[in-house]
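Minutes, project check-in
Item: structure for the 270-residue chain
Input as provided by the requester:
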Amino acid sequence: MLSAHRMQNTDDRLNSALVASANSLLRHVVPLFRIQRGKRPTLVGTSLLVSAAGTNYLVSARHVLDHAEPPGILHYYVEQGKLHRLLGRVLRTEPPLGGTGPDRYDVSIVRLPQNAQAPAASVWKVAAPLSSLVSAKLPRTGKEYLVTGFPKSRSRADPHSQQLKSEASGFRVISASASQYESLGLSEESHIVMPLDIEKMRFPDGALRRIPDPHGMSGSPVWLLYDSQDSNDPTMTPVVGTVIEYHKSQKLLVATDVGVALHLINESAA
């Protein structure tokens, strides 16, 4: 006679572990909202909350934190129902050689002032240690990644509660082929390119379903789930990249290696 409680098979256990890992890592991921007088608040991107030597930083895409000009327009939740203005020293990547060409790195950080409130435990947020940011995990092949962030399509202003509602999303991806890197004019040393077909994403239950459009997830951290060519530390899921753009026609998601964010953090502390 079969028991009412069946044993989980290997795939079930792995999928359950993935969901648990994504939920745990979301503690470090913070949505950013643009609030202007007379206009509806909007979600403009995602950031990673990082702590180094007693100082808190938010790491995001440059084009997201460009919304912080003039200062005080961007906000984040520090407690339930309590928004805080994003203020602090902003460092960003620049176009090559100071020219007018595109900034292919597109990364920026904010060093929060000592008197600024950081997102707190009441909104289920805690800073990730700087040691969890690990750059240059090469080669990119043979790796599985997890992207966690807040899609714009799942964010809205609730007029009844006077709060901004944002729903997180997370998905597992792998590194693209060398030809896909070449098609975008990018290298594995500086970027992570990942195939992303939002119409056919595999869910933990094995089904293929559509996921939300990733717009709004710029600035999201890319976590290294598994490296087939190196050892894997079961106690730490490192951050290896910062999402900067999505090429819908080519079904490719692009992130900048987290070494760029590390450089900016070290520069801000100098």
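Outcome recorded: Confidence is low (pLDDT under 50) at residues 1-14.
No further action items on this chain.
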